[in-house]
Amino acid sequence: MHFPIEAVRSTYPALADGFAYLDGAAGTQTPQPVIDAISAAYRSGIGNVGGAFPAARRSGAIVAECRAAVADLVGGHPDGVVLGPNMTTLTYRLARAIAGPGDEVVLSRLDHDANVRPWTQTGATVRWADVDPVTGELPVDQYARLIGERTRVVAVTAASNILGTRPDVPAIAALAHRAGALMYVDGVHATPHGPVDMRELGADFYATSAYKWSGPHIGAVVADPALLETIRPDKLASSPDTVPDRFETGTAPFADLAGVTAAVEHLAGLVPGTGSRRERLLASMGAAEEHELGLFAVLIEGLETMPHVTVYGKPARRTATAYFNVAGHTPRQVAEHLAGLGVNVWNGHNYAWELTAALGIRDSGGAVRAGLVHYNDRSDVDRLLEGVARLS
């Protein structure tokens, strides 16, 4: 399917500054419809939910629309969408409510620390799934010996935030469910890069962050409402005990939630389409993934052919994310050099704390990360490659 990259880019005001934004793995830029939706919510007047006046009803509608939009994006149910400030905060909240001393949790060294540390701090016994440091793959067969009758949760990423590795989550989930364990999937890095169906993944919980897919800084964890009914998080005595409200503390940022809905609508319209919003999202994100991987083939080949560049990981299935070092230069020096040429990339461990240790580079500054999203084009890739080539 043809991907209308020029039309897509025209919706992002920030791209007018001329920089190549290859930092999308840390957070994407915001399209005009999202900016407009947030502004419109403030202009219309909003109040806390539950009031007897129109502004309160508007806020209630914004929350309901946001839950429905996130559910459409990941293939969940609106009543199972828990909203919060970010994925890390929500995962801490849920981890404390789900696991504890006497339980076992199976974690992966492929994961972002936000799907690691919250579980290690519950008091549960931790069992580790290791990564192949050469390929960046997460072998499934090890899970058969890691998961046992005491396993409460298996937590794993749907895509590595530095290597892009897409592990075989459905196969891992099958082993977890066979043992009666819950599957907590970190979809923060995966969601922006292609269609998502949390049921096909076997995810009992699917976590995502809107600012990684052109929305504001809002996190969400999606689960079956019936499952959420069985979990009792810490909460104020006076706050609602219904699902999913019992998991959400404090007053929500209602205008930002309006922006989340607009971001989902934006993603559904990246390419022309018909049908339900869910159907349009699947088609649109499929086209975006094809576009990204086409550009990534040029980027990764260009990096791998440079003798002064070391690229980490060669997973069979991945997102358009490259992690590399340049001989004779620290990752920070490379990032600063590229910034001087108008190319934005990240450097460091990028919170892949266990994975950078497994790669043997955490204590030396990690590496450089360049990540493509749907608004990047060939010129962005060419500028990165030209900039890295200058460091030979």
Describe the structure in your own words:
The chain is of the alpha/beta class. It has 2 domains: 5-31 and 277-389, Aspartate Aminotransferase, domain 1 (Alpha-Beta Complex), CATH 3.90.1150.10; 34-268, Aspartate Aminotransferase, domain 2. Helix content is 38%, strand content 15%. The chain contains 14 helices and 13 strands. The protein has helices spanning 5-9, 32-44, 54-74, 87-98, 117-120, 143-146, 169-178, 198-201, 225-229, 254-268, 277-304, 331-340, 353-358, 378-389; strands spanning 20-21, 81-84, 104-108, 125-129, 151-157, 182-186, 205-209, 219-223, 309-311, 321-326, 343-344, 346-348, 367-371. Strands 2-8-7-6-5-3-4 form a 7-stranded mixed sheet, with helices on both faces. A 4-stranded antiparallel sheet has the order 9-10-13-12, with helices on one face. Helix 5 links the parallel strand 3 (104-108) and strand 4 (125-129). Helix 11 (277-304) runs parallel beside helix 14 (378-389). The two termini are 37 Å apart. The mean pLDDT is 98.
Q: How would you summarize this macromolecular structure in one to three sentences?
A:
38% of the residues lie in helices and 15% in strands. It has 392 residues and is an alpha/beta fold. This is Cysteine desulfurase-like protein.
- The span between the termini is 37 Å
Give the topology string: H per helix, E per strand.
HEHHEHEHEHEHEHEEHHHEEHEEHEH
Strand fraction equals 5-15%
Helical coverage, percent range:
25-40%
Kindly state the number of beta strands: 13
Oligomer, anyone?
A: single chain
Low-confidence stretches: none
Domain Aminotransferase class V: 21-384
Pfam family, one: Aminotran_5
Protein name: Cysteine desulfurase-like protein
InterPro entries: Aminotrans_V_dom, Cys_dSase-rel, PyrdxlP-dep_Trfase, PyrdxlP-dep_Trfase_major, PyrdxlP-dep_Trfase_small
